C-alpha cells in the first residue's frame, strides 16, 4: 500500500494512551483535516516527542499516511507555539478545551483548512491573555466563525421565511438555521425569542478577530442569550454535539478544580 509522507502544521486536539508506551493523538491539520495518529514511544522516558503532544499545542508534524488506514503514524512533531496560561486557570482551561473539542467533533473528512486552523490558533492565543469577561466572547466568536468555514453559518439578517430584514431581534430556530421575524412568520415551538442586542452581538461575533474581541466586548454582553442560541444551533447541526455544551464547560471547570495540579 502506498504511503505518503506528509509535513503539515497542526493543532493537538487530544491525546490518550495506547498500550504501555504509545499515545493516540488527534491532530487538526492545515492540509488534511482531522487525522488520528499513533505516536510510538511517546510515553517512554526518552520520548523524542517531549511535550509536543499536549492538547492545545501547535506543532509542525511529519506523518506517514496510508489512505486506507484509520490511524496514521506520527513520526515527528516540533512545537511551533503553545500557551501555558491556558492550563493554569479554570476559565481559560474550559474555553480552550471547548475550541479543541469543537474541532475534534466538527471537523470531519479529508479536507484541510489552514484558515480554520489559524482561527483556532489565534483564539487560543487570545484566550491565554484575555481578561475573564472576554473569554466567553472569544469562544462564541470562534464557534460562529468556524461554522462559516464549515458552510453552516446561521441566518441573522433577514427572516428565513419572508426575507424581511430583522431589526428588532426575532425568533431563533436552531434547526432551520437562523431567525424568523415572529410576525407574520412564527416558530413551531422549538424557536425562542432573542433580543435585538443578542442578534447584533451574534453578528458582531462573526466579524471580529479573536485579538480584537477583548476591546470590543460590550458592557452589557448578552451572554445567556448568545450561549443558548449558539449551543442549540451546534446541537441541531453537528450530530456529534449532543446535549448543551455550556454544561460541559461547567463540568470541565469542576473537574479542573478536582484535579491535583
Ligand atoms: Zn418573516
From TrEMBL:
The keyword Aminoacyl-tRNA synthetase does not apply. Residues 5-82 form the DNA replication/recombination mediator RecO N-terminal domain. It comes from the Bacteria. Keywords: DNA damage, DNA recombination, DNA repair. SUPFAM superfamilies: ArfGap/RecO-like zinc finger (SSF57863), Nucleic acid-binding proteins (SSF50249). InterPro entries: ARFGAP/RecO, DNA_rep/recomb_RecO_N, NA-bd_OB-fold, RecO, RecO_C. GO terms for biological process: DNA recombination; double-strand break repair. One of its GO terms (cellular component) is bacterial nucleoid. NCBIfam families: reco. PANTHER family: DNA REPAIR PROTEIN RECO. Belongs to the RecO family. Involved in DNA repair and RecF pathway recombination. This is DNA repair protein RecO. It comes from Eiseniibacteriota bacterium. The lineage of its organism: Bacteria, Candidatus Eiseniibacteriota.
Amino acid at each position: 500500500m502506498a504511503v505518503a509522507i506528509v509535513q503539515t502544521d497542526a493543532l493537538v486536539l487530544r491525546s490518550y494512551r495506547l498500550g504501555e508506551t504509545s499515545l493516540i493523538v488527534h491532530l487538526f491539520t492545515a492540509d488534511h483535516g482531522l487525522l488520528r495518529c499513533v505516536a510510538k514511544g511517546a510515553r517512554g522516558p526518552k520520548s523524542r516527542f517531549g511535550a509536543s503532544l499536549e492538547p492545545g499545542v501547535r506543532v509542525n508534524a511529519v506523518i506517514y499516511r496510508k489512505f486506507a488506514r484509520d490511524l496514521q503514524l506520527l513520526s515527528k512533531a516540533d512545537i511551533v507555539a503553545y500557551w501555558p496560561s491556558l492550563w493554569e486557570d479554570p476559565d481559560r482551561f474550559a474555553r480552550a478545551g471547548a475550541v479543541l473539542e469543537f474541532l475534534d467533533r466538527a471537523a470531519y473528512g479529508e479536507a484541510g483548512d489552514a484558515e480554520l486552523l489559524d482561527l483556532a490558533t489565534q483564539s487560543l492565543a487570545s484566550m491565554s491573555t484575555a481578561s475573564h469577561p472576554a473569554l466567553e466572547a472569544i469562544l462564541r466568536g470562534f464557534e460562529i466563525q468556524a461554522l462559516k468555514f464549515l458552510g453552516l453559518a446561521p441566518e441573522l439578517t433577514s427572516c428565513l421565511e419572508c426575507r424581511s430584514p430583522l431589526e428588532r431581534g426575532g425568533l431563533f430556530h436552531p434547526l432551520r438555521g437562523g431567525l424568523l421575524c415572529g410576525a407574520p412568520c412564527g416558530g413551531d415551538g422549538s424557536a425562542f425569542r432573542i433580543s435585538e442586542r443578542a442578534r447584533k452581538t451574534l453578528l458582531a461575533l462573526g466579524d471580529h478577530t479573536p485579538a480584537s474581541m477583548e476591546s470590543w466586548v460590550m458592557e452589557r454582553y448578552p451572554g445567556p442569550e448568545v450561549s443558548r442560541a449558539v449551543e442549540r444551533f451546534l446541537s441541531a447541526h453537528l450530530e456529534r454535539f449532543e446535549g448543551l455544551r455550556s454544561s460541559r464547560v461547567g463540568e470541565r471547570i469542576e473537574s479542573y478544580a478536582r484535579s491535583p495540579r
